[in-house]
Design brief:
6-stranded mixed beta sheet, 392 residues, 18 strands, binds flavin-adenine dinucleotide, 35% helix, alpha/beta
């Protein structure tokens, strides 16, 4: 019997966990999702969803739900420090579906989670359990026995074929069940903010993503018209995570009037978010595996963490459904995903270094960006955005 003939457990109802639940349920599998929060978590802020991920979500039937909650920016304006006009606008908009067969969209993480959850609710074979205070797993030749402790209820033990930890960067599945490493602090903080659209009128284009470079920092802004908000995320270096407790940014933007205006509009609105990464070769053992940030959290400088979780789910679901032995499916999943995920993580890390180069190296970086022009990224990132999880 294929593994999916029995229940499959997923720890974590985040982007990766819900995508996997949906992908498995479409093949008829019975899925139980264990989420420790009492409801869909509204944490996080904006996400850029590139065509490689959007293609997967569209195939899962989410195209209309996502279009109603997201926005397709026309391009990315890149502003070097202290420059009034963009150095270049990198084309997105219509060229992305033309070139890669799916849209490049931006949306709030909570809106994506909600669209996924709504889709899951239409499947009688998906049970999402919120408020799971604790779960324990026993593994054996015949699969897993999962003891679930929900708030205010008697604990119960359910049996199934496998458990996949989609439980995020600080995954218990990785550290306890796979005895993998803890996440590593990446030396940077993301400061996130959401402002009303009017607050940045005249500072950034209302139909594009804006990336602004400064000394030791960069800022990414994009509109979320569905919420009438603008998403801001500013990245800078901090020696330790504790620095995130500081209520204000140490950096004072002096020579950029645009950065100054954005900082003034966002004063007091920033939420610190220390960045962590995960590097582990071991994504599975027996009937247990990890996916998404739990397996490979990366720096967000190519905006691909959620995209990789979504791709993982699309690759893993058919393997699990087709294989009688989940361990076999997990081995094939790991073999097919690790090289790509490492390449994306390396690109993200390298972007982080390049984005924060000091002068005069930043001047060389800016020349390189200008030479790339409006369409250079389409060729350079063909391997990333053109990837099709179904065409392996
Ligand atoms: C500043 C910033 C900007 C980003 N921008 C982008 C972007 O533009 N595009 C992009 O693709 N990615 C982006 N990312 C990355 C993206 O947010 C993550 O990679 C993605 O959310 C990972 O999804 P996941 O499902 O693996 O984990 P998560 O979305 O973190 O979900 C994990 C879930 O597991 C639950 N959980 C945790 N522990 C347990 C437990 N023990 N038991 C049960 N449940 C548990 C959590 O409550 C949560 O619901 C960004 C990240 C940051 C920090």
């Amino acid at each position: 019997m294929p593994a999916a003939g029995r229940s499959i457990f997923i720890a974590g109802a985040g982007i990766g966990g819900l995508t996997l639940a949906l992908a498995l349920a479409k093949f008829g599998a019975h899925v139980v999702v264990l989420e420790r929060s009492t409801g869909l978590s509204a944490f996080g802020a904006g996400l850029q969803i590139s065509p490689n991920a959007r293609r997967v979500l569209d195939r899962l039937g989410l195209s209309d739900a996502l279009s109603a909650r997201s926005f397709e920016p026309a391009g990315i304006d890149v502003y070097p420090f202290a420059r009034a006009n963009p150095l270049v606008t990198m084309d997105l908009g219509g060229v992305m579906p033309e070139r890669f067969g799916a849209a490049y969209s931006v949306m709030h993480r909570a809106d994506l989670a909600e669209a996924l959850y709504e889709a899951c609710r239409r499947f009688a074979n998906i049970d999402v359990l919120f408020g799971v205070d604790d779960w324990q797993v026993q593994t054996g030749d015949s699969g897993v026995a999962v003891t679930i402790q929900e708030a205010g209820a008697q604990s119960r033990t359910l049996r199934g074929a496998a458990l996949i930890g989609a439980d995020g960067v600080h995954s218990r599945t990785r550290t306890e069940l796979l005895t993998g490493p803890a996440a590593t602090y990446a030396g940077r903080i993301a400061w996130r903010g959401l402002l009303p659209m009017e607050a940045l009128a005249g500072q950034i284009a209302p139909d594009r993503v804006s990336v602004l470079f400064g000394p030791g920092l960069h800022l990414v802004c994009y509109p979320l018209p569905h919420r009438r908000q603008v998403n801001l995320v500013l990245f800078n270096r901090h020696k330790d995570e504790a620095a995130a407790d500081r209520p204000t940014l140490a950096f004072k933007p002096s020579r950029s009037t645009r950065l100054q205006a954005i900082f003034a509009a966002a004063a007091g609105q920033w939420t610190p978010w220390p960045l962590y990464t995960v590097a582990t070769d071991r994504w599975h053992r027996g009937p247990v595996a990890v996916l998404g940030d739990a397996a490979h959290a990366m720096e967000p400088f190519q905006a691909q963490g959620a995209a990789m979780a979504i791709e993982d789910a699309a690759v893993l679901a058919p393997l699990l459904v087709a294989n009688a032995n989940p361990a076999e499916a997990f081995a094939r999943y790991q073999a097919s995903r690790q090289a790509r995920v490492r390449r994306v993580a390396a690109l993200s890390r390298s972007n982080g270094r390049i984005f924060h180069l000091p002068w005069p190296l930043s001047a060389a970086r800016d020349v390189g960006i200008r030479l790339q022009g409006r369409r250079g990224h389409l060729r350079r990132l063909q391997w990333l955005y053109g990837f099709d999880t179904d065409a392996r």
